[in-house]
Amino acid sequence: MNLVEILLFLSIIGVVYLGSRLRAVNSSNFEFKSNADSLSESNLSLRNQLTEQKGSYLSRESNLYKTISGLQDSLTLEQKALESREVELQRRERQLTESLDSANKNLEEETQSRKKVLSQKKSSEVRLGHIAETLAPFLDQFDFDPENCVFLGKPIDYISFNDDAITLIEVKSGKSQLSSKQRHIRDLVKSNQVNWKEIRIE
């Protein structure tokens, strides 16, 4: 073979090789194009899903904002109602405190008035008792001869010295009662615990 034939043979082999390589490259380009189209469709689908999700998120965010805004409005109204209620309660507390102070003052005045009346009543009863004790010998209820009676005043009002007996006399008016000391003296007399003692002074 001469040099021309060898070059021609090599050229044919090169063309065949280049053709096969070109078909392989075209096949790869087709696969790349197919993959690119698939990726583009996936990208579009993902964009659509993202848009839907974003719309759903915006809708939920709007609803949540409305709910929060409604709750804030309700809270504001509730706070205003509580403040109004607190003011009303403070006003009523002041009124009750004033009423209580007035009632306490009236009670104190009434107590002082009653104490004064009771004191005056007791004083009147004491004075009346003294008058009754002094005038008793001259009253019809007094069964003893006034000339035989000696006024002591305390703890017993009178002692009557009759010919047949010596009598201790206590005068009481109204509903007054014997004192504990007067009851003791009465009990001693009733149990014959009465003694005579003569004291001589040189």
Structure description:
The chain is mostly helical and 202 residues long. 71% of the residues lie in helices and 5% in strands. A three-stranded antiparallel β-sheet has the order 1-2-3, with no helix packed on it. It starts with a helix and ends in a 12-residue tail after the last helix.
Strand order of the largest sheet: 1-2-3
The number of helices is 2
What string gives the helices and strands in order?
HEEEH
Low-confidence stretches: none
Overall pLDDT confidence: 81
Beta-strand proportion: 5-15%
Overall geometry comes to rod-shaped
How far from one another are the termini?
A: 199 Å
Tell me about the biggest sheet? 3 strands, antiparallel
Task: Give the helix level as a range of percent.
Answer: over 70%
Number of DSSP-assigned strands: 3
What structural class do helix, strand and pairing data support? mainly alpha
Radius of gyration: 65 Å
List keywords for this structure.
mainly alpha, 2 helices, 3 strands, 5% strand, rod-shaped
